[in-house]
Design a protein that fits this description.
Helices cover 15% and strands 28% of the residues. The chain is α+β, with helices and mostly antiparallel strands. The strands form two sheets. A five-stranded mixed sheet has the order 3-9-8-5-6, with no helix packed on it. Strands 2-1-4-7 form a four-stranded mixed sheet, with no helix packed on it.
């Protein structure tokens, strides 16, 4: 291995270690602050967002999506976004939903993008015997959306759109029967990077 190549490898390892430490520290701070356990108010606006999700129709599930932004990219690589190649191997993206259990009926999924990249949230039934995060990922970095019950991907609006911009909110209202569901981001590479959560619906 040439000295130049050795420096490139060590630089890549240093960036990976820094991203890992930053992700662990961020998760630890959010856990310590109780951010994973809070339920938003009737009209939900996370601090720093540029628009407000409306009051829930039925139950509310408040979802926060985030990433480590430019720390996600590898050495000399483009920042990942909307299908462009990027470095997702560190899994430094997250999707957190609260509460994780709601009664059957109308459910408003309210999403705030606290990250630097564009995200979305799709609501899919979770097959029996499967856990969140186990869907097959295609060559395009996405999972199948067959059977989707709803999508929040319109910046400052309801339903499907072009993605939730950084610092913005989006929402969708769905009718859910008792069962298990998966909330996920299906922007290429994001599901593989850890952007999914289980939602349980009771009778």
């Amino acid at each position: 291995m040439t000295p130049r190549r050795r420096r490139e490898v060590w630089t890549a390892l240093a960036i990976a270690a820094a991203a890992l430490v930053l992700g662990i520290a961020t998760t630890g701070l959010m856990a310590a602050s109780g951010a994973f356990h809070r339920t938003g108010p009737a009209s939900w606006r996370a601090q720093g967002t540029r628009c407000t999700a409306p009051a829930a129709k039925g139950s509310a599930v408040d979802v926060t999506v985030w990433d480590t932004g430019r720390m996600m990219r590898g050495p000399d690589g483009p920042a990942p976004n909307n299908g462009h190649p990027g470095w997702y191997g560190m899994g430094m993206m997250r999707l957190a939903a609260r509460p994780m259990t709601v009664p059957a009926g109308r459910v408003t999924v309210r999403v705030v993008n606290a990250g630097a990249l564009t995200h979305e949230v799709i609501v899919l039934p979770l097959p029996a015997g499967r856990a969140a995060g186990e869907r097959a990922i295609g060559s395009d970095g996405r999972v199948s959306e067959a059977g989707s019950l709803g999508e929040a991907s319109r910046t400052c609006g309801a339903g499907a759109g072009e993605g939730i911009a950084s610092g913005a909110a989006a929402w969708t209202t769905v009718t859910l029967r008792p069962g298990r569901y998966e909330l996920l981001c299906n922007v290429p590479g994001h599901y593989a990077a850890g952007m999914y959560a289980e939602l349980d619906v009771t009778r």
